[in-house]
Specification:
- The chain is an alpha/beta fold.
- The chain is built from four helices and five strands, in the order ββαβαβααβ.
- It has a five-stranded parallel β-sheet, with helices on both faces.
- Strand 3, helix 2 and strand 4 form a beta-alpha-beta unit.
- It is globular.
- It starts with a strand and ends with a strand.
- This is DUF5615 domain-containing protein.
Length: about 110
């Protein structure tokens, strides 16, 4: 599975998702691109777009994109708050359906 981490997700989370191919939006050179255009770019090279932006599902028509969106729900977007989600996240990544939003929270 190829995962793109949104800018708002602590990039250090990628070290805890080593079972997957993970890149960040800045690594791809897409840091200034807005959500709709970003999802369009991401669907060419990635299976999953991972974010903490809870509003993304309301701002974009996710079924129009051929990638899955995973929204991480934690107290903050800091690594310490995201870490408890990693075990569940690793289970959910292979199951996340394209064109849908999957919420991962405790």
């Amino acid at each position: 599975m190829r995962i793109l981490l949104d800018e708002c997700v602590d990039r250090r989370l990628s070290k805890h998702l080593q079972a997957f191919f993970v890149r960040t939006v800045p690594e791809m050179g897409w840091a200034t691109i807005k959500n709709g255009a970003l999802l369009k770019l991401a669907e060419r090279d990635f299976d999953i777009f991972m974010t903490v932006d809870r509003n993304l599902a309301f701002q974009q028509t996710i079924p129009n994109f051929s990638l899955a969106v995973i929204v991480l729900v934690a107290r903050t977007n800091r690594l310490v708050d995201l870490m408890p989600l990693v075990p569940m996240l690793c289970e959910m990544v292979p199951l996340a359906p394209k064109g849908e939003v999957t919420i991962v929270k405790l």
